[in-house]
Amino acid sequence: MEAVYHYCRGAICGLGFYTFYVSRAWSYLSDEPSTCVNCHIMGSYYATWSHSSHSRNATCNDCHVPHENAAKKWFFKGMDGMRHAAVFMMRGEPQVIQAIDESAEVIMNNCVRCHT
Fold it and tell me: Helix or strand or coil: residue 102?
């Protein structure tokens, strides 16, 4: 029975590491804008950003995560990322992406933060 327990634990760990690798999960810990293109529906949004004036001075996270403190930034980034992953895995992404209320508030606060 103990051997089965160790086998299952090893299989779960192996599957977790494989999923982490295949999904390029480590890339989401950075502020690199190309990470956003990991999701196929973000291509046109990334292209629009890369040809805009914002691409010279701002990354995606400069606008899309809060900057009041590090804890709030990482908590929001983690929760938003998990929501994005769930929507993507369930094939629930809409054709036209719109920010949810919490994200829209963060985006507006960051617009004001930079453009005052």
Answer: helix
Q: Do the Cβ atoms of 31 and 70 come closer than 8 Å?
A: no
Token pair, residue 26, equals 């480590």
| Residue 115 pLDDT > 90 | yes
Backbone angles phi, psi at 32, to 5 degrees: -70, 120
Phi/psi region, residue 6 (left: phi>0; alpha: psi -120 to 50; beta: rest), is alpha
Distance between terminal CA atoms of the chain? 65
Q: Tell me how far apart the alpha carbons of residues 112 and 107 are, in angstroms, rounded to a whole number.
A: 9
Q: Is 32 helix (H, G, I), strand (E, B) or coil?
A: coil
- The pTM of the full predicted model, rounded to 2 decimals, is 0.73
Task: Give dist(CA 54, CA 60) in Å, integer.
Answer: 9
